[in-house]
From TrEMBL:
SUPFAM superfamilies: 3-carboxy-cis,cis-mucoante lactonizing enzyme. This is Uncharacterized protein. It comes from the Bacteria.
């Protein structure tokens, strides 16, 4: 479908569930969160399973990782146009999609580090210079053929953390952003001596000097725990050494209940929001808000089923890319979207003050990644084509047919 037709079809009924469809369908006259544009991506079209991962904004550009094109894709925010796909070559090439599972594909996470972007890839972190349109370096973190996934930055001390969730024993690598070398590693073997089930998103809180990371599961907390890693303890690890997380001074593990956590975002005050993507059939899809100082649960909302979760201070709202939301608000069979157990992907918007759902906007197939530009209020959500992967029967009717990047406005 041409862009103009796509926007006419998608904008008219983008907002649902809380406020109804309503409005004239004239995009220029509407206010509030809504769909405003669609951006095509090279080699992504109807019938193609578009494999993408984490997105981020920095300056006037939106970046997201694109496994189909083995690239970090660049979008110009003011014009809402695709600029380029940055690919490396030789030893600096991204792994791409490949024939195997997502654990052996890349790039994955994307984090701005000054004017650069660090992107997790198989066995490594790639350092990308968007201005030059080039991959500058590859920082090895493993040799096992699985990915370094999502990362976060301590800009105060120049330390980048990235998780390797599919290793036999999951671990996090800490990299100096000044030397672009590995300075320490933290392994995740729980107090019972078992490797944790994996690692998800991480964030760094400069106010308290703590890294936080979602752990998929441990013996004590089989459906997830939020782990606090004190920055002082990380910096105390001898250069090049490895230490287990349970032995770090001041470490804390906060139970997340039946969560199966994914996204993570620092909210106002001491709030930290956890996106849950429950794999228990019929379990409520939750977004949980904790007090990050003591781990107390302060709110639990039926607003989960997502992957990337972001907080925008300008609107004081959270944005959850809930690709596995369902009509009932409960997890589909084993948490997966299938033809027999379909999903209804949405962008869930939560007010951080009231800790309540503001709106749910229809999104495209497998739309699990979200990034917000604080200057313009534009929200970028990649999506796959309506028919691939299976499990989104409403995607075509909602206007999300070809795959690409849908653009919403927050205000």
């Amino acid at each position: 479908m041409h862009k103009s037709a796509w926007v006419r079809a998608g904008v008219a009924c983008a907002v649902f569930a809380l406020g109804g469809c309503g409005g004239s369908g004239d995009n220029l006259e509407q206010t509030g969160p809504r769909l405003v544009a669609d951006i095509a991506v090279p080699n992504v079209r109807a019938g193609v399973n578009f494999s993408f991962d984490i997105g981020t904004t920095n300056g006037s550009h939106y970046y997201f990782t694109d496994r189909n094109n083995a690239a970090l894709d660049v979008v110009d925010i003011p014009t809402k146009t695709f600029v380029k796909a940055i690919k490396g070559s030789g030893s600096l090439a991204f792994a791409g999609l490949g024939p195997g599972p997502s654990s052996t594909a890349g790039p994955d996470g994307a984090t701005p580090v000054g004017n650069l972007v660090y992107a997790g890839d198989v066995n490594s972190v790639k350092v990308v210079d968007p201005a030059a349109g080039a991959v500058l370096a590859s920082i090895p973190v493993s040799t096992t053929g699985v990915r370094a996934d999502e990362g976060c930055l301590d800009a105060t001390h120049g330390i980048f953390m990235i998780s390797s969730p599919e290793e036999p024993t999951p671990f996090a690598t800490f990299i100096s952003t000044s030397t672009q070398t590995v300075i320490a590693r933290v392994t995740f073997t729980d107090a019972a001596g078992k490797p944790t089930a994996g690692l998800e998103a991480c964030v760094y809180d400069a106010a308290s000097d703590n890294f936080y990371v979602n752990v998929d599961g441990s013996t004590a907390n089989p459906h997830g725990e939020l782990v606090k890693l004190p920055g002082t303890a990380i910096r105390a690890i001898p250069a090049g050494a490895t230490q287990n997380y349970t032995t770090l001074a001041g470490v804390a593990m906060y139970p997340e209940g039946n969560c199966d956590p994914t996204g993570l975002a620092l909210g106002p005050g001491t709030d930290i929001a956890v996106g849950c993507r429950e794999a228990t059939t019929g379990a409520p899809l939750l977004m949980q808000i904790f007090n990050r100082a003591n781990g107390a649960l302060v709110a639990s909302l039926n607003a989960g089923g997502g992957d990337q979760l972001e907080y925008d201070a300008a609107t004081n709202r959270y944005y959850n890319a809930a690709s596995r939301w369902t009509a009932s608000g409960n997890a589909s069979a084993n948490g997966n979207c299938t033809t027999a157990s379909p999903c209804k992907p949405v962008l869930t918007i939560v007010d951080a003050g009231s800790r309540g759902v503001v709106a749910r906007l229809n999104t495209g197939n497998n739309a699990h990644s979200v990034a917000i530009d604080p200057a313009t209020g534009l929200i970028f959500v990649p999506y796959s084509s309506a028919t691939s992967p299976a499990g989104c029967p409403d995607c075509a009717a909602n206007g999300f047919i070809n795959g690409g990047v849908s653009v919403f406005v927050a205000r």
